[in-house]
Design a protein that fits this description.
By secondary structure, the chain is mainly alpha-helical. It has helices at 15-33, 51-66, 71-82, 87-107. Helix 1 (15-33) packs antiparallel against helix 2 (51-66). The chain is globular, with a radius of gyration of 15 Å. The chain starts with 14 loop residues before the first helix and ends with a helix.
């Protein structure tokens, strides 16, 4: 996070983190429609895969990688997001989201 000498500590995420999460979600959603050029990857969703699960998993995985001390919070939010989705649709969608997050994290390592 950016700091200003003598200023208060920042209370928002670093913009890099926000950008990485946003791109992971973008590529996860775009994997379903393939309307736009992907930033990092297109995953291949299985028939019946949940778009909502893909979004939740992409955000989760990117956030956990960027802020590992908050893993328990992100895990709880993911579980809540997936709770109302049929298990197979959730698993198939989560695979798309995981692939999207992995691809952007690999591009942005360093």
């Amino acid at each position: 996070a950016l700091t200003t000498p003598g200023g208060k500590p920042p209370t928002i995420f670093d913009t890099r983190h926000l950008a990485i999460v946003s791109v992971a979600v973008y590529d996860a959603v775009n994997s379903f429609d393939r309307i736009y050029q992907p930033y990092a990857t297109w995953a291949e969703p299985a028939d019946g895969a949940s778009r909502d699960a893909a979004v939740a998993q992409a955000a989760h995985d990117a956030l956990v990688a960027l802020m590992p001390t908050q893993t328990a919070t992100f895990d709880a939010a993911l579980a809540e997001s997936l709770a109302g989705i049929p298990p197979q649709a959730a698993a198939d969608g989560a695979a798309v989201g995981a692939a999207a997050a992995k691809a952007i994290l690999e591009l942005r390592t360093g």
